[in-house]
Design brief:
GO cellular component, one term: apoplast
Structural class: alpha+beta
Distance between the termini: 72 Å
CATH class of the domain at 61-200: Mainly Beta
Radius of gyration: 23 Å
Family: Belongs to the germin family.
Bound molecules: 2-acetamido-2-deoxy-beta-D-glucopyranose
GO molecular function, one term: manganese ion binding
CATH superfamily of the domain at 61-200: Jelly Rolls
Number of strands: 10
Domain Cupin type-1: 70-211
Order of helices and strands: HEEEEEEEEEEHHH
Number of helices: 4
Binding site for oxalate: 106, 111, 116
Helix content: 10-25%
Length: 217
């Protein structure tokens, strides 16, 4: 009797705990097209009245146009996120076109909120990501037109065009707003600067090396 009462109590406690953790992690309506004029602050963007939603809310144009790669890294990302397509709000996906000049790079960066799956439309790319501590294993290969590569959420990754022509890739990401942290810009180009003596210890180099790199960002 005592044992079965104990079991029942345990079961109830377990149920209560599960209920406390339960929440919907998928959308609760067909769509929540972003109301870009709303002042309401939510995790994502407020929905506009579904009756006013139009096909154009789920559409954008121009992804056939090459990005301008005349910059220091030789690449250009053209995003298609909830900022460009309001219908993506709450759906957990987005897209980007990436253009690469010959030997251009998409510098080491992470997406704090998304895994990425990338396919090559033109050219050849050297791609890679690095696993977390303590292994810091560098997983890398060269991929060709038609190949696909996956960058797991949060891991530092990069691409380089390893051809003498332009390269083009399309990346799909598992967030309406993946976010981008470009390592060099975040560490050496923060505003205000991270104290150089912190970076001296972190990177184990002289202060003049740190101030030189900081001056580039
Ligand atoms: C590409 O960007 C460079 C540098 O900002 C600029 O000088 C050039 O005019 C741009 N080219 C086109 C076609 O927009």
């Amino acid at each position: 009797m005592a044992a079965s009462r104990f079991l029942l109590l345990g079961l109830l406690a377990n149920l209560a705990f599960t209920a406390a953790l339960a929440s919907d992690n998928t959308p609760l309506q067909d769509f929540c097209v972003a109301d870009t004029k709303s002042q309401v602050v939510v995790n994502g963007l407020a929905c506009k009245d579904p009756k006013t939603v139009q096909a154009n809310d789920f559409s954008s144009s121009g992804l056939q146009i090459a990005g301008n790669t005349s910059n220091l890294v030789g690449s250009k990302v053209t995003p298609v996120t909830a900022a460009q397509v309001p219908g993506l709000n709450t759906l957990g996906i987005s897209l980007a076109r990436i253009d690469y000049a010959p030997w251009g790079i998409n510098p080491p960066h992470t997406h704090p909120r998304a895994s990425e799956i990338l396919t090559v439309l033109e050219g050849s790319l050297e791609v890679g990501f690095v696993t977390s501590n303590p292994e810091n294993r560098h997983v890398t290969k060269v991929i060709q037109k038609g190949d696909v590569f996956v960058f797991p959420v949060g891991l530092i990754h990069y691409q380089r065009n390893v051809g003498n022509g332009n390269a083009i890739a399309i990346a799909a990401l598992s967030s309406q707003n993946p976010g981008v942290i470009t390592i060099a810009n975040a560490v050496f180009g923060s505003n205000p600067d991270i104290a150089s003596d912190i970076l001296v210890k972190a990177f184990q180099v002289d202060k003049n090396v740190i101030t030189h790199i900081q001056s580039k960002f």
